[in-house]
Amino acid sequence: MNIQSAISREIFVPRGEKLLVAIEVRRRTKRKGLSFLNAGRKKDYLTFLCLSVTNSRPAQVLITKVKRYQGTRQFAKRSQWSVEQLRQVNGINPDKDTPEFDLVFDRTTDQWVASSAAEKCMFVQVLYHACQNYWEAKRGQDNPASPGEQKIPGAPENKKSPGAPCQTNFVNCQQKLMGDACSVNMVIYRCKIFLNRMKNSMTANQGRLQPPAVKASRSRRSPSPPAVRKMGNVMRRASQVLSERGERLMKADDKTSHMFHGAKQFAEAAQKKKETHRCLEKPEGE
C-alpha cells in the first residue's frame, strides 16, 4: 500500500472525505517564533499536504496538513483549511517546473518545498481544477437560474454581491497546469513521481545495507556499484523518454485545441453569413 492510500484509509475515509492528492513537503523558510526551541532539534517527522473533498452535499474542498512521526507508521492530522480560506496559490516560477510554492490563507502564509517538481505540479493542477469546480457549483447555488432562463454564450455574467467570498487566485503558475490537458499532465507527473521515489528508495536501501567501512572504501574507489549505476542509467533514460513523449503530447493537444477554435470561428462566421443572406432574400412585403 502506497502512502496516499494509507493516508486516505487512516485520516479521510473515517471522516467521510475523499482524498484527491497527497504530497510530501517541507518548509522553505524557518518560522521566526520560538527559534531557540528548534535550534539543534533534529527533524523527527514527515509532513504531507493533502487535498480532499467531502462526500456530503454541498461538497467542501479541504486542505489538510498530515504528519507521520519517526518510528511509527500511523499518521496524525494537524491543521486544516477550507478552500474559501485559501486566498492565493503562488507557483513561484511560471516558466519551468520547480518544487517551491506558497499557500496564502486568511491568517497565515505557508512556504513549501515539495519532494520533487512533479509532485508540486500535480498538487497545483488538482487544486486548481478542484477550486474551479467548487466556485462554479457555489455560484450555481447562490444564483439559481429560472427554468426558462438559459445561459447565452458570450453574455456578461452577473457581478458578485459585496458579501460574496473572494475566489482563490493562482499566480506565477504554469499555464499548462490550468489548461485542458489535465489527463495528459497527470499521467506524466505520476510517472515522474514513481521514478523519483523508486530512485530515492534504492539510494536509501543501499546506504542502510552497506557497513561504514565498505561505504568509506567504495566512496574512494567509485561512487556506486555497477548494478546501481546501470539501474540509474535506465531510470534516467526512462525519465528522458517520458519527458519527450509528454512534450509531443502537449504539442498535439495545443494543435488540436487550435484547430477546434478555428473550426468554431468558421462555423460562427458561416452561420452569420447564412442569416444575412436569408434576410436579403425576404420579399419586401414581409
Automatic annotation (TrEMBL):
Region Disordered: start-end pairs: 140-164, 204-229
Gene Ontology MF annotations: phosphatidylinositol-4,5-bisphosphate binding
Pfam families listed in its UniProt record: Sec3-PIP2_bind
GO cellular component, one term: plasma membrane
Domain named Exocyst complex component Sec3 PIP2-binding N-terminal: residues: 42-134
A GO biological process held by the record: exocytosis
PANTHER family the UniProt entry points to: EXOCYST COMPLEX COMPONENT 1 ISOFORM X1, SEC3/SYNTAXIN-RELATED
Name of the molecule in the record: Exocyst complex component Sec3 PIP2-binding N-terminal domain-containing protein
Organism: Culter alburnus
Organism ancestry: Eukaryota, Metazoa, Chordata, Craniata, Vertebrata
